[in-house]
Design a protein that fits this description.
Blueprint lengths: L7 E3 L1 H8 L17 E2 L6 E12 L3 E11 L4 E5 H10 L8 E5 L9 E4 L24 H10 L5 E4 L11 H10 L3 E6 L6 H9 L4 E5 L5 H7 L5 H17 L6 E8 L7 H11 L3 E7 L4 H4 L8 H4 L1 H16 L3 E2 H8 L21 E3 L5 E2 L19 H5 L2 H11 L16
Parallel strand pairs: 7-8, 7-14, 8-9, 9-10, 10-11, 11-12, 12-13
Antiparallel strand pairs: 1-5, 2-3, 3-4, 3-6, 4-5, 14-15
Helix pairs in contact: 3-4, 5-7, 8-11
């Protein structure tokens, strides 16, 4: 840890000349005390490290270097001790001034888009934030404009806070995407697998569809996924798998995901076994009740005790996932084989837990948000119906949000998210 008397080089002028808009936000969720230090320049407490590439002299780069940022004097600095440490492995930097800085280290060229086709659903899950959003469908003309504005997109997931197959234009949108060479994925509650829907899913070459199942017991399932009939879901999965295989279709691959609670935290093995018998191919993920504060505020009071138990349930899920992966294919392996960059982990910063999702997420209004759990519009300039994706990705406000999230400097609206606690 640096102290107040450490010799250091002030990089502030160079940093701001290279990208003045990339700077830690004035307010963010608190960092752990072990992450803080005295500013090498002004001696104020509370400085912390951020990552960047640094160039020394005309052509020698130190990649993912750590520099100190001080919230008090708003300075960026490099300690002489840190320079000396790098010099041991890169002697060429000796005596060289820092001549360039590049702090754009997040996944900045996404080719995967999550888009909400609808917020409507035929289930009324008590923990679903979608039931508290405006109930509407995406306009197909807007969907077309989005594709026009995103010429580099390679995969689209028609997912969100509703049941995508309730959108009457689902297969028209899937065809629009496929006609442009775009892969199509979806997440469903599994209730709408009529024979005609099954045939269309196969004909449309929907590459993957994930089914959400919360319990092995029909009664317990219906208590969380209100209006849901588990036997109907299993029957639909079986019919989809049988039709796909009998007619020589490769896709859609069928995935499994779900939410577990204190009274169902031991059910994942049974759910996985039943899913495999029904014809599920891929294990995607299970999650505990979402502890993010924007979600907690919509939960019934009788269920709030579940939030405190979320870490324990998450630990049970992690412990049981290896057994699940021995029976079903890992979603990450599937994506790798299909050439789909869809990680919600992305590139770690090496300093602290951060957020670097490799995709874009858009509300059905076309407004891009930093992740699928942020449901408010943060900047109208980030609208995919109105602006080319290149303009959004290079928007100074958007870039600064991604810079902060990648460095593990989380805004208040991330409060409660499990990534802030990692």
């Amino acid at each position: 840890m640096l102290n107040a008397t450490t010799a250091a080089t002030d990089l502030s002028a160079l940093w701001r000349r290279q990208h003045a808009h990339l700077e830690p936000m004035a307010t963010h969720l608190p960092l752990a005390p072990s992450q803080l230090q005295a500013c090498p320049l002004c001696a104020a407490a509370g400085a912390f490290q951020v990552r960047c590439h640094l160039r020394f002299g005309p052509d020698t780069w130190v990649n993912e270097a750590s520099v100190a940022f001080c919230p008090t004097c708003r300075s960026f600095s490099l300690s002489d001790a840190q320079r000396a440490q790098w010099q041991q492995s890169q002697p060429a930097i000796a005596g060289q001034a820092v001549t360039a800085v590049d702090a754009r280290l997040w996944s900045a060229a996404p080719t995967f888009l999550n888009i909400e086709p609808t917020t409507r659903c035929n289930f009324s899950c008590w923990y679903c934030v979608g039931r508290h959003m405006e109930q509407a469908d995406i306009d197909e003309a807007n969907f077309s404009r989005m594709l026009d504005n995103y010429p580099t997109v390679k995969t689209i997931a028609l997912v969100g806070e509703g049941e995508p197959l309730m959108h009457k234009g689902f297969f028209d949108m899937a065809k629009q995407a496929r006609d442009r060479g775009i892969r199509v994925l979806a997440i469903s509650n599994g209730s709408a697998f009529s024979q005609s829907v099954i045939e269309k899913l196969c004909d449309a070459e929907v590459a993957y569809i994930s089914i959400s199942i919360d319990s092995i017991d029909p009664k317990t399932f219906a208590e969380s996924r209100i209006d849901g009939e588990l036997d109907r879901v299993w029957a639909g999965i079986e019919k989809l798998r049988q039709y796909r295989d009998a007619n020589g279709f490769t896709y859609p691959k069928i995935g499994l995901k779900g939410t577990l609670f204190t009274h169902t935290e031991n059910e994942m093995p049974a759910i996985v076994d039943r899913a495999k018998r029904a014809g599920v191919d891929i294990f995607e993920s299970f999650q505990p009740l979402n502890p993010k504060l924007s979600y907690v505020q919509i939960y019934p009071k009788a269920q709030l005790a579940q939030v405190a138990a979320a870490p324990r349930v998450r630990a049970r899920i992690v412990a049981g996932s290896q057994a699940a992966l021995a029976k079903l294919q890992d979603i990450q392996k599937f994506c790798a084989e299909e050439g789909i960059p869809a990680s919600n982990i992305g590139r770690p910063n090496g300093l602290r837990a951060g957020c670097d999702e490799e995709w874009l997420y858009s509300l059905l209004s076309g407004d891009v948000t930093p992740c699928c759990q942020v449901k408010q519009v943060l900047d109208p300039a980030w609208n995919l119906f109105e602006h080319p994706v290149a303009d959004i990705l290079s928007n100074p406000h958007y870039e600064n949000v991604r810079f902060n999230l990648w460095n593990g400097l989380f805004p208040d609206y991330c409060s409660g998210c499990s990534k802030t606690e990692a």
